[in-house]
Amino acid sequence: MKIKAVCAILAPVFAVGAPFFVPKLVQLRTAMIKPSHPMGAMAALAVGENSASAPVPEVKGASRAAAGPSNEAIELQVGTEQGLLKAEFHGNGRESLQAKLTNTGETALKAQVEAGQMFEAGLNAVVVVRSASVNLEPHQSAELRLQTAATRTGNKIAQQNYKLSYGRVPKIDPLFAYAKEHSELTSGAIQTAVLALMENLPLNAVCKFTPLAGELKSRFNTDAFRVETTDIIAGLEALRAVGVPDTSVVMTVDTQLKIEAMIEPLCRAAAMHYYNLTPETEWAFWKNELLQGDPATRHYALYGIARFYPDVAMEMLPKWARETKTNPVFRLSAVQALADTQRPEALPVLRQLADDFGMNTELGRAAAGAAEYLDQQLAALATKQASVSFRAGPRIDGL
């Protein structure tokens, strides 16, 4: 009974006093296991004697200052919401955005920006194309350049401040996964693909060549989003690779794109791949375009033949130029295309055509202009290597 009475008396005392004397005991225990404490030093010596054959492994490449935990990875939006990151954003509304990030905490961290993260500035909206990250020590600041793409042609293209957006467009995520595996994909190609998914623009809204269908009638000026033909083809190739049907992309319907891509030397290889053409079937393509192609672009084939089948062109084009029954557009194109052969023997042919037609005719003036252009090109080729070489094709009859 006495024991129970004593316990009944001490229990309230312990409950009240525990928060005060338990931490003291913990501090005492912690101090005793430190080597600097007399008892701690004895304990460390004892442990050292017993474990001398088991040294602590050394991590290669790790500095002594980094003996603590490795940089903690944190997503940009999460870091800013939790106050671990201070961020400022400045972008041009299209392909570039600068992020100034500051680690406000006491622990090193790795700030990550994932592809698909969106930013906004008024009516402007851009999306990160490729993921990026930066390591930040405590209270350190760094700038991170992000590759972005506009999600609308209404964006104002000018440097201005941006803020993080909670928006997300899942349908363009597969495109970014493809871009991650294809570093050769240019910002222009990615931008074209993004706008094809977001606004499904027609070809004349993004091409740099003169569209036969005329300029796009829109309340937005799309000049800031016009790209080279190579970028258009690369963008369409990317969309096809991620499963977007060609028939669902409006710009693929325009027949001008195919012929424009094929006559452009820097784009021809990509165009042949996209349109499933091979060296064995290429001549059939040019012949078909010339004889049965779209009436508005049939004469374009003469330039392709001149550039990639110069031997054929040297024999064929003068005949087309002289034939009075030939459509004037084809005659004029035949004269101009002779200069695209980049053959020295085409120079006297053009000069002879200029004399035969006379300078008072459109054909005569075109021949003289083509001769002057070719002369300049040949002079340049004589002093330096041409940036694009035209191959000599096999001799082909039938035209």
Overall shape: it is elongated
Strand fraction equals 5-15%
Series of secondary-structure elements, N-terminal to C-terminal? HHEHEEEEEEEEHHHHHHHHHHH
- Low-pLDDT runs of 5+ residues are 1-69
Largest sheet: spatial strand order: 2-3-8-6-5-9
Terminus-to-terminus distance = 124 Å
Summed up, the domain count is 3
The pLDDT mean sits at 83
Quaternary state of the chains: single chain
Described by strand count, sense and barrel closure, the largest sheet is:
6 strands, antiparallel, barrel
Number of continuous helical runs: 14
Q: What would you call the structural class?
A: alpha+beta
Kindly describe this structure.
There is one protein chain. The chain has 399 residues and is an alpha+beta fold. The chain folds into 3 domains: 71-168, Immunoglobulin-like (Sandwich), CATH 2.60.40; 170-277, no CATH class; 282-399. It is built from 14 helices and 9 strands. It has helices at 2-33, 38-50, 76-81, 173-181, 187-198, 229-241, 256-263, 268-274, 282-292, 300-308, 310-322, 328-340, 346-357, 362-383, and strands at residues 72-75, 85-91, 96-103, 109-113, 118-121, 124-128, 132-136, 141-150, 160-165. A 6-stranded antiparallel beta barrel has the order 2-3-8-6-5-9. The protein has a 3-stranded mixed sheet with strand order 1-4-7. The termini are far apart.
